[in-house]
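Write out this protein's structure.
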Amino acid sequence: MAALVIGVITIVSLISVTAGMRSTFTDIMSDMTGIWVYEKDAMDVPFSVLPVSYGEKIESIPGVKLVIPQIWGMASEVNDATPELEGGISMGLIAYVGTDAVKERLRKGDFMGVPIEKGRMVSQGETHTIVLGYGIADSYNRRLGSKIEIDDVEFTVVGIYEESLTMDNYFTIPLKTARDMRGLDADEVSNFEVQASDSRDEEKISAKIRFKFDDVEALTMQEAGDEMTGMLDTLDLAFILISMIALVIAGVGIINTMLMSVLERQKEIGVLKAVGWTSDDILKLVLWESLMIGIGGGLIGNVIGFGVVAMVNPILPFEVGVTPIIMVQAMLFAMAAGLFGGVYPAWKISKIDPIEAMRS
């Protein structure tokens, strides 16, 4: 039963994590639109570098409404100290995005799907203004008009984003300032955000961009979501395999335990057969015992697994919860492992000769 408990805890906790990641990512992607264009084979957008001239070429593609040049990067210091934040999709790190203020005014919808709760977006001609994510503003107690120093550059807070998992640990600054912080040349950016005149044409436009530029990657939010879903599916499969290994080990343990148990009771089982019990009756008796071990291990494992998820939930950057479906699946796995462990001992003892059993 202890081995089963460990296997069930593994199933409940690991599958709950991937379910939480999937739910969070779906919520984030549902609020975002547009096409992201960045350097092909770049590890991530903050490591991408593209020529500014690509922006005009992309704008010439039929169906493209707006192309916003951006520069993404990671901040190493806030107020002369290493950032210490919790949560957010950046795992406690602080990231920035420099954007073209003129193009931002023409944007349809909110940046990254997150509205500005207080203040405004950075404006044209400004170099040291900043829009803080809610988490940064809260952690450093900053409000509109406050000063904050990031990577030895002092900014004035002109806006604060609404609380969200997406932008809590991010801040937005003018494009030129972000270029200086990233160390890029005047004719370089990290990526472009492309908005289509009709959102239904986004996949066609992204395909045209990839065809026109062989050194860029262009993904719609739907395509990015499909990629992430595929990764989560692979992660789910890996976790299930790990859990199955744990349950197979538990099943082998049950075989050993049940076999010793029935052999110790072979005299009593011989008496039962002598007074009329059939081999099928003995078989059912042992299988029910092993099934009860599976049920007990499943119940205890579910309870402990639920507690483990509740303990780790506050330290994860996304919400994790144990769903009834996960608990039912874990219980079924435990019951299956219990039955698997009881089949051989039940078959072996059911074939015993009652006279030989009572004589043993």
